[in-house]
Amino acid sequence: MHKGVMAGAAAACCALTGVAVLAANQPMGSMHMMSMKPTVVVMHAQNGSGENGTATLTSVSGGTKVVISLTNAKGTQPAHIHPGPCSKLAPAPKYALSNVVNGSSTTIVKVPLSDLLGKHYAINVHESTTNLAKYVSCGNIP
Length: 142
Ligand SMILES: [Cu+2]
Description:
Elements (H helix, E strand, L loop, with lengths): L1 H35 L2 E7 L7 E8 L2 E8 L5 E8 L11 E7 L2 E6 L3 H4 L4 E8 L2 E10 L2
Antiparallel strand pairs: 1-2, 1-8, 2-3, 3-6, 4-5, 4-7, 7-8
This protein binds copper (II) ion.
The site of copper (II) ion has 5 residues, from strand 4 and strand 7.
């Protein structure tokens, strides 16, 4: 009985809203694809670390997900988004990222991806919590 009522309500409402939903789905579909398309930053080893890899930036609810994946990395290594580019990195971080632990780090930065792109930011990784001065990997955010 409950089902019948629901179906009746759906039928009554949807001659009109069905069209609206279809129309709304088209632009939402393409926006969804655009916003979900990840930006892959190539991370280059510095100072002989061998820590090459990627940082993948994805637009998510509440900000940007940053996933760092590095080869040859071990231990706990601080990571940040700095004003860049890597070739002349500003020493003060702009946004903190989760430490890279054994080559992996995932952070939700509370900033839209669109605010990170085209600003000459760079993602850098430091050797250790006690040796921040040594940079081991860096990648320019396009
Ligand atoms: Cu840093």
